Amino acid sequence: MKPLILAALIALLAGPVSAQMLCGPRPDVVANLERTYDEYPSSMGLASNGTVIEVFVSEKGSFTVIMTRPDGMSCLMVAGENWENVPPPRWHTFWAEDWKDIPI
How many CA atoms lie within 13 A of 18 on its CB side? Predict the structure, then answer.
C-alpha cells in the first residue's frame, strides 16, 4: 500500500511526472516522507555522476531511497518495508584503529 500512496503523493507534488521516475523539488519530497511515513535521513553518499543518494527510514521499518540531482530535483528510486541496520564489518574497526596514529 505504501508504494501506491507514495506514488500518488509524488505525482501530485511533482506535476507532470515522467513515466520512468517520480521526481520533485527535494524540500517537498523530504517533507512528504517525514509527514506521510515518518521517515528521516539515515545515510547518504555522493555518486560518481554528481547525484546525492539518500536513504530515509522510519522506526516502523519503512524506507525510501532518493536520488537528488545538482539542480535540486529529487527522484524516488525505491521504497519498501522491513529496513534493518547492520553493524559495520569487524575489519572496519580494526582498520580504523590501525590508521589512527598515522599523520596525514
Answer: 9
pTM: 0.67
Q: Is the dihedral of CA 13, 19, 22, 25 positive or negative?
A: negative
Integer CA distances (angstroms), 24 to 7, 14, 58, 71, in order: 12, 5, 21, 11
pLDDT at 18: 39
* Collapsed DSSP state (helix, strand, coil) of residue 94: helix
- 74: nearest Cα among 62, 63, 66, 83: 66
Number of helices (H), then strands (E), in the chain? 3, 5
